[in-house]
Amino acid sequence: MAHPPPSGSVVLMDWYRSVEGKGFFSRIKRKEKRRIFGLLEAPPIPPLINVDTVRYKVFLSGKSGVGKTALAARLAGLDVSSVHYETIGIQTSVVFWPVKLRDSGQVLLFRLHLWDCGENALRRFDHLLPTCKEQLDAVLFLFSFTDHSSFDDLPGQIARGCDPSDNVVKLVVGTKFDLFMHTDVTEREVKAFQEQWAVPVFCIGGDACDDLQNVAPLLNTLAELLWHQDCVTVGAVPANESAVGDTSSRAGH
């Protein structure tokens, strides 16, 4: 993976708040809630509007109970269950997210195909992890602020989730950030991890409100890194042009 660009240098992070942005986001919403799209569905974009759709596969990795299924639901605008249950096999969902590129002003519609697989299923069936990693574009590595062992497992997750030679975008998401009374992972530990691994870290709270501002920081950064990675791959941007900046963020808090 190329060095991540400084946050906001590729896409306009607050564009979804603008009048123009709200017009595009109205295509993925219905009655102030985000629409649910199936695998063969897409937002109704008028034919006279020039918007390219770019497609990516995203795998959610993490120990059982850290909130992979809840995060996938939150990103897709689905209802988040208050009861934890182990994901059986592989569950997928589709997220559409429009962004505007900073330099060209072009609007892109990102189609993010989220793959979520239960930890026990991955251990029992050897073919599931290779299936999840096939033609993979990004991995979200999850840990819970209420479970230090899930944080300690991050290096192993990264080693299992993708090979060093793969052009795969990596993001770390810490869940249950708002449960201060039960926090097992300190912000100092998170900062040290980010500096050592050069991977952006996001912190997600437990509020399941379907509000764009709760998911915009994470989805915009994911879109930015995916597009930057593609530009580096085709040679449009030198791989060493950008340095790692302060990419940590708190979303949904």
Automatic annotation (TrEMBL):
Cell compartments where the protein resides: Cytoplasm, Cytoskeleton, Cilium basal body
Listed GO MF terms: GTP binding; GTPase activity
Pfam families associated with the record: Ras
Transmembrane regions: none
Statement: the UniProt record of this protein carries the keyword Mitochondrion: no
Keywords noted in UniProt: Cell projection, Cilium, Cilium biogenesis/degradation, Cytoplasm, Cytoskeleton, Exocytosis, GTP-binding, Nucleotide-binding, Protein transport, Transport
Gene Ontology BP annotations: cell projection organization; exocytosis; protein transport
SMART domains: RAB
Keyword match Hydrolase: no
Family: Belongs to the small GTPase superfamily. Rab family.
Protein name per its UniProtKB record: Ciliogenesis and planar polarity effector 2
Stored InterPro entries: P-loop_NTPase (IPR027417), RSG1 (IPR039677), Small_GTPase (IPR001806)
